[in-house]
């Protein structure tokens, strides 16, 4: 069985319905109107491109008899950027022509980028317009830093603060992102082409820290609604690749998000204080965290009280990053109702990584987190919850690392609720199975680990499971659990652990089956 996830005027995305993480149970082929397209496939999510608008199609896959009929969306107009004068030679500045095409395009229309590499300075997307980047084409970022305008952290409209730019959870002056949108809606960015930040040929990575104006994101969506990115490759970003900010109803489907491992702070996709985000069928390989779900630091959490809510990640492949799925450390607005299922994690430092600390605030509530049907391969430490993360200028102070049981619960104390990890297979771990370290004054409410297996490499190397003061190196060790009110273990198995399989401290209730 398979289902339709999305359709535009020229593209469509589908998902096989099964229980296998990311890869289908067996190879299959896709036929469109009875004609085979694209060769043999293995992924649970597949896409079709170069379709005709306002046209009915039938699609079948060889592994089953069912046929699905769909119709592409009608369009009002199509504008090819080359028809306006864009060169697409990778040398000529094509910003004016690309932006003019977007600005000129009427609601319901499509701007087409095809047949070349289009060198651009920052461009701004527009409501009700589709941007299609065809296979073999790319938007190529200008490498001159001064060509990325200064965007102030905030402005005041009728006496009310309006956030315009953010960096690591705080309002901060930034360079304008290569692609951005502000208070826009019904945007689609589709195609098999690329948005290439070109940072590997620039000076952005040479001086990543200590800037008075933060590096640009590849894509920044500020207070947008109903946005879809489908099929495109996002790569070589100056900082984070995709940064949705206070936005709603977003879909990221069948994307490739790529940065070299050496790219500093080049996270893949970091939705911040967003509601209803679907990330399905995407492949991540980046220089920092693959997907980091955020809701700002203390000022943003107290002022806007907007959690990261209703996020679904499914049938994704996360590889080569620091963490596959990360919550925080900017989580002062909270993270609620997160579901991660049918995903594969490969060669990441950590699988699930929750980072928080004292000072994130009482609105920093993380609750309702489900990880289910996950395959982890060569993940150094599969599961990490660290409430003593030593980030920020005061990160190494006693306030952050103290284990004093008399520490009060106050307005700066974040809360971690219920977490469930079910049907997870972890092979070739190195450091330890899991590290759960709650606050002494406000322990993690509940951790359930059910049908989870951990297998360790014979030649595993020592590693620190989390970034906090006074943590030692671990190697081939089991679950370390400290300051968790309720710990439930059902059918948890270990292969190759040295020493105790489960080390528990300060757990009020432990259930083992």
Can you tell me the overall shape? globular
Share of residues in strands: over 45%
Question: What's the total helix number?
Answer: 3
- Low-confidence blocks of residues: none
Task: Give the helix proportion (percent range).
Answer: under 10%
CATH fold name of the domain at 86-288: Pectate Lyase C-like
| Main beta-sheet annotation | 28 strands, parallel
- Radius of gyration based on Cα positions: 23 Å
Top-tier CATH class of the domain at 86-288: Mainly Beta
Give the end-to-end Cα distance, rounded to a whole number of Å.
35 Å
Mean pLDDT: 97
Number of DSSP strand runs: 45
Structural class: mainly beta
In the CATH hierarchy, what is the superfamily of the domain at 86-288? Answer: Single-stranded right-handed beta-helix, Pectin lyase-like
| Gross CATH architecture of the domain at 86-288 | 3 Solenoid
Could you outline the blueprint of secondary structure elements for this entry?
Layout: E1 2-7, E2 12-16, E3 23-32, E4 35-43, E5 45-48, E6 56-61, E7 67-71, E8 78-80, E9 89-93, H1 95-104, E10 109-113, E11 117-120, E12 123-124, E13 129-133, E14 138-141, E15 150-151, E16 154-157, E17 160-163, E18 166-167, E19 170-171, E20 174-175, E21 179-182, E22 185-190, E23 194-196, E24 219-222, E25 225-230, E26 233-235, E27 242-245, E28 248-253, E29 256-258, E30 275-280, E31 283-285, E32 291-293, H2 298-304, E33 308-314, E34 317-319, E35 323-328, E36 335-346, E37 350-355, E38 365-377, E39 381-386, H3 398-401, E40 415-416, E41 418-429, E42 432-437, E43 444-456, E44 477-495, E45 502-512
Parallel strand pairs: 8-10, 9-11, 10-13, 11-14, 12-21, 13-22, 14-23, 21-24, 22-25, 23-26, 24-27, 25-28, 26-29, 28-30, 29-31, 30-33, 31-34, 32-35, 33-36, 34-36, 35-37, 36-38, 37-39, 38-40, 38-41, 39-42, 41-43, 42-44, 43-44, 44-45
Antiparallel strand pairs: 1-2, 2-5, 3-4, 3-6, 6-7, 15-20, 16-17, 18-19
């Amino acid at each position: 069985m398979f289902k339709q996830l999305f359709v535009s005027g020229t593209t469509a995305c589908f998902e096989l319905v099964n229980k296998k993480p990311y890869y289908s149970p067996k190879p299959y082929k896709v036929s469109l109107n009875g004609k085979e397209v694209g060769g043999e496939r293995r992924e649970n999510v597949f896409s079709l491109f170069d379709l005709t608008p306002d046209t009915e199609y039938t699609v079948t896959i060889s592994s089953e008899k069912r046929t699905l009929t769909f119709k592409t969306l009608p369009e009002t107009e199509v504008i090819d950027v080359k028809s306006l004068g864009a060169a697409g030679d990778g040398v000529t500045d094509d910003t004016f022509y690309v932006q003019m095409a977007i600005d000129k395009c009427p609601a319901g229309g499509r701007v087409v980028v095809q047949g070349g590499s289009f060198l651009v300075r920052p461009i701004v997307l527009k409501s009700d317009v589709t941007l299609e980047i065809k296979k073999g084409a790319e938007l190529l970022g200008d490498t001159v830093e001064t060509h990325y305008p200064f965007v102030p952290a905030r402005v005041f409209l009728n006496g009310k603060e309006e956030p315009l730019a953010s960096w690591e959870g705080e309002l901060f002056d930034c360079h304008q992102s290569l692609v951005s949108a502000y208070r826009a809606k019904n945007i689609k960015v589709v195609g098999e082409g690329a948005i290439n930040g070109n940072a590997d040929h620039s000076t952005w990575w040479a001086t990543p820290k200590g800037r008075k104006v933060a590096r640009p994101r590849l894509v920044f969506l500020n207070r947008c609604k109903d946005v879809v990115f489908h099929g495109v490759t996002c790569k070589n970003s100056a900082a984070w690749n995709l940064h949705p900010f206070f936005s709603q109803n977003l879909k990221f489907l069948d994307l490739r998000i790529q940065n070299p491992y050496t790219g500093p702070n080049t996270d893949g996709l970091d939705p911040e204080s967003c509601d209803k985000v679907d990330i399905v069928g995407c492949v991540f390989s980046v220089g920092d965290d693959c997907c980091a779900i955020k809701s700002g630091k203390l000022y943003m959490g107290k002022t806007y009280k907007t959690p990261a809510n209703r996020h679904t990640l499914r049938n994704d492949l996360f590889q080569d990053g620091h963490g596959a799925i990360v919550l925080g450390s900017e989580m002062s607005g909270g993270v609620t109702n997160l579901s991660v299922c049918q995903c594969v994690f490969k060669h990441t430092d950590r699988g699930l990584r929750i980072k928080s600390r004292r000072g994130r605030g009482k609105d920093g509530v993380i609750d309702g987190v489900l990880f289910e049907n996950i395959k982890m391969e060569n993940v150094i430490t599969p599961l990490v919850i660290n409430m003593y993360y030593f980030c920020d200028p005061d990160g190494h102070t006693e306030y952050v690392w103290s284990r004093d049981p008399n520490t009060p619960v106050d307005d700066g104390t974040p809360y971690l609720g219920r977490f469930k990890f079910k049907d997870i297979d972890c092979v070739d771990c190195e450091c330890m199975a899991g590290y759960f370290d709650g606050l002494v004054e406000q322990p993690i409410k509940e951790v359930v680990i059910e049908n989870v297996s951990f297998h360790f490499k014979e030649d595993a190397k020592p590693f620190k499971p989390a970034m906090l003061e006074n943590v030692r190196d671990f190697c081939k060790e089991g679950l370390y659990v400290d300051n968790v009110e309720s710990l439930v273990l059902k059918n948890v198995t270990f292969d190759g652990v040295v020493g105790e399989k489960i080390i528990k401290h300060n757990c009020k209730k432990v259930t083992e089956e």
